[in-house]
């Protein structure tokens, strides 16, 4: 098997290294808008560097991994499926809902294979939470709480094209709400604050946000996120039911301190970021893609699954801007 990987920045380099280690992934062809960056990574991994992205589609590969800048995702995915190539794409598929729907129609019309990169589906804690909910061990769920807190804001150029806190960051929480509970989001109400660093006001984004989601079985969900959590990277999900409650993401590296006299001590080495926290999950999702390409496993997150999470993010952004509750039925779908 030969896999073409497009985009050798931070996440692309991580994916390339994971594929280089995988016994069934075969050879790698790396490409980037900066050919020199692809060449340097290829030399480190013993892979082949293409002089441009075009060669990924003309030199003969069996599958494509898209980890380029967000604004290139849609075009590259469409190009792959039109060429009959299975494709893994980092989220988001496109910068907005309309373009996402357009790409997914292209994928389905071509009968293409598309896996989206929602790595938390492969995290051990979230998988256990899902099993407990689905088994009935927690009883009827009444409350779900999620949070994603970055230790510092990303660079201004990234923020300008990220799509905003709901689409870029909390979309992972929205995916987990659906995936863990097995329910759909019916209504949302969201708010955000740009009171932090000036870059958020300059880019029309918010540094902190909160959303209340009502699921289709009336379970209540709160999702909060921030780019300014100086204590460290903190991602958690709490699920409370009539019989029991559990928390994913709570361990000895969670950057939170108890004020109780006999509470647990502060984390000695808090998580620094998403690549460190979710490294095993990232590796597992690429392994799942290899199995998918080889015809040995199902698609763990297809385009329609990713669309469902994006529609929740879009509804939250609409709610924030217009300061009103939003029904998911207001948004278009496939």
From TrEMBL:
Any GO molecular function: nucleotide binding
Region (Disordered): 247-270
Signal peptide: none
Highest taxon, organism lineage: Bacteria
The entry's keywords: Oxidoreductase
Domain GFO/IDH/MocA-like oxidoreductase: start-end pairs: 126-242
InterPro entries: Gfo/Idh/MocA-like_OxRdtase_N, GFO_IDH_MocA-like_dom, NAD(P)-bd_dom_sf
Pfam families linked: GFO_IDH_MocA, GFO_IDH_MocA_C3
Domain Gfo/Idh/MocA-like oxidoreductase N-terminal: 1-118
UniProt record similarity statement: Belongs to the Gfo/Idh/MocA family.
Protein name according to UniProt: Dehydrogenase
Organism of provenance: Streptomyces globosus
